[in-house]
């Protein structure tokens, strides 16, 4: 069993839709949770960074962490075609290395 | 732009050969990590360097090695290439003591092993 599970998609939505992306994890030592966006032929770009449980909002993006359920989510409001990319969840404990999910491909149709 | 550059962009090698990939970090970023991202997968941690010393390693064999230089550049070397080494190799740099939200990834080098 992988430490971090993420639905690979692809997820196809119309422009303006609310997108929900999710990851589950098994390691209760994870304290830091991140969402990255990766466009084709590019490196991952950090979107959201949260510590412990709760919600964090940044513009059209909201990250949620539920440590009791070992479940994290990223919501994208008013999705745009430019949001089409692969979204990677990542998490870490107190050490240095990030553990990534396998990524969800998102396509926002105009 | 993240200020992290990698070269070359693409590389094709044959099984058994050796390869060197290069990364140039932002000034002041003296911690660099390397990740391997196979097609359709998330990045996997290879190792981390801090002040020119390896200070953490993932589940990769010794034929994966690295170097870090005082000018904030680094290298990933892979010996005895195998077909499964075909992947996107990413480096990520951050300042000493920086958290994950101050870590920036480069665009990656795509390695194909035939």
Structural description of this entry:
The complex is a heterodimer of chains A (110) and B (114). By secondary structure, chain A is mainly β. Chain A has strands spanning 4-6, 11-14, 19-25, 32-38, 45-51, 54-58, 61-66, 71-76, 85-92, 99-100, 104-109. In chain A, the strands form two sheets. In chain A, strands 2, 4, 5, 9, 10 and 11 form a six-stranded mixed β-sheet that branches. A five-stranded antiparallel β-sheet of chain A has the order 1-3-8-7-6, with no helix packed on it. By secondary structure, chain B is mainly β. Chain B has strands spanning 5-7, 10-13, 19-24, 31-37, 44-50, 53-57, 64-68, 73-78, 87-94, 104-105, 109-113. In chain B, strands 2, 4, 5, 6, 9, 10 and 11 form a seven-stranded mixed β-sheet that branches. In chain B, strands 1-3-8-7 form a four-stranded antiparallel β-sheet, with no helix packed on it. Chain B starts with a strand and ends with a strand.
What structural keywords apply?
heterodimer, A: 110 residues, mainly beta, five-stranded antiparallel sheet, 0% helix, B: 114 residues, seven-stranded mixed sheet, 11 strands
